[in-house]
Amino acid sequence: MSTSPAPQTEPLTVAARPELTGGRRIGVLLSHGFTGSPASMRPWGEHLGALGYGVVVPRLPGHGTTWQDLNTHRFADWYGEIATAFDALRAEHDEVVVGGLSMGGALVLRLAADRGDQVAGVMVVNPALATKRLDVKLLPVLKHLVPSFPAIANDIKKPGVDESGYSRTPLKAIHSFIGSWPALIADLPRIKAPLLYLRSPEDHVVDGKSEPIILDGVSSTDVTRVELPESYHVATLDNDAPTIFEESAAFIARVTTS
């Protein structure tokens, strides 16, 4: 089985053009979700790049290859990739805004909790850090018995769209992600950065349990919630993608104004 990444799953980097952003270099870090790839964030990143922002969309370890490869990686690997990308952006830009889809939302919330005022703003699309599903309680046992569950990829309302995700959900890897939730929930009050929360009311991957935990947990006084009524979980590729692009561009411009 080939593990060569498909072109659309490759990381994305767009150089900042400060002449378009008031003479300041503004960086944007975007993270894809679990079993996904940069393909789910590429249109968003390209839109922001065209506005002059320096954009980086890393490919998280174990993604864009095979689900078996992903099963050998853990939350610390994915967070390490995001933290490294953030530090590189910080070194070259005046301010950095972070954003993520699903697990990517949890990763950038973790980053905002850890890095404080280094993060100019946080944008999350259908972030996951809790679930009503009862079968997750069985993961500590199931992960040793069954390598994978059916896929969670491609929860998209718009016909004919493929997020280039995996055909299976690796259990050891997702158990590691779920295991990161309690510490992040406990640290949500450390997040004070402005927050843009984008949410699909019909989401077949992330249920409604995460939203009140996040919105009630953060200390941010600048919180904007935007509903995505015509999209499912992968809203960055769905019918409401233009809303995400426009709202995020306005948010970044506002929170990085010196």
UniProtKB/TrEMBL annotation:
<keyword id="KW-0378">Hydrolase</keyword>
<dbReference type="InterPro" id="IPR050266">
    <property type="entry name" value="AB_hydrolase_sf"/>
</dbReference>
<protein>
    <submittedName>
        <fullName>Carboxylesterase</fullName>
        <ecNumber>3.1.1.1</ecNumber>
    </submittedName>
</protein>
<feature type="binding site">
    <location>
        <position position="103"/>
    </location>
    <ligand>
        <name>substrate</name>
    </ligand>
</feature>
<dbReference type="InterPro" id="IPR012354">
    <property type="entry name" value="Esterase_lipase"/>
</dbReference>
<dbReference type="GO" id="GO:0106435">
    <property type="term" value="F:carboxylesterase activity"/>
</dbReference>
<feature type="active site" description="Charge relay system">
    <location>
        <position position="203"/>
    </location>
</feature>
<feature type="binding site">
    <location>
        <position position="34"/>
    </location>
    <ligand>
        <name>substrate</name>
    </ligand>
</feature>
<dbReference type="InterPro" id="IPR022742">
    <property type="entry name" value="Hydrolase_4"/>
</dbReference>
<dbReference type="GO" id="GO:0016020">
    <property type="term" value="C:membrane"/>
</dbReference>
<feature type="active site" description="Charge relay system">
    <location>
        <position position="233"/>
    </location>
</feature>
<dbReference type="Pfam" id="PF12146">
    <property type="entry name" value="Hydrolase_4"/>
</dbReference>
<feature type="active site" description="Nucleophile">
    <location>
        <position position="102"/>
    </location>
</feature>
<feature type="domain" description="Serine aminopeptidase S33">
    <location>
        <begin position="28"/>
        <end position="238"/>
    </location>
</feature>
<dbReference type="InterPro" id="IPR029058">
    <property type="entry name" value="AB_hydrolase_fold"/>
</dbReference>
<feature type="site" description="Important for substrate specificity">
    <location>
        <position position="152"/>
    </location>
</feature>
